Amino acid sequence: MNNFSFLILAGGYGxxxxxxxxxxxxxxFQTLLERIINTGNQLSAEIIISFRDxxxxxxxxxxxxxxxxxxxxxxxxxxxxxxxxxxFQGAKIASSKYIFITAVDMPFINKNVIELICKYAQNxxxxxxxxxxxxxxxLHSVYRTNILIKESDRSIKxxxxxxxxxxRNFENIFxxxxxxxxxxxxxxxxxxxxxxxxxxxxxxxxxx
Length: 208
Fold this sequence. Notes:
By secondary structure, the protein is of the alpha/beta class. Helices cover 33% and strands 19% of the residues. Helix 3 runs antiparallel to helix 5. The longest helix is centred in the C-terminal third of the chain and has 13 residues, at 145-157.
């Protein structure tokens, strides 16, 4: 996937898990961040990690030795914006035409699922998985980088902080039905994320 950068959003506070850095949660022999980096390395030559600040990066560096091999790291410059600021900063330094975005609390991202999503990107400005009930997965999607930079910055300046805010101004989006993804990931575990202790226990049970 030479035309794709791979952005990992790791800047969250993990409030519902007791203010922990979720990327340092251990599943098996790896942390969540390590698992996602390893998947990203199979897909893209450009891995970008977004942290909220230098202090958070140092916490990760103190706990994950090979993490420092990542040479593209960005920090929030506008505080209190949330993941949309990380998306903007990460997209700004991406060198590829397209950028795949995922969050550090998604432990079961699947290389084959990501390849499927990105396969559709050549003819669109974004490819976003959509559930039957209309719910979107904007943090497991691919975007045309230059449009994402422009529209995420505009959304932030308008005070719109939701991750889906920039999408409203994308003209050419392919909404990929999750039923298509089931051919590769029957239980759609790729979209599992960890926000609460209950989510964490569920993820650990899946991992077993």
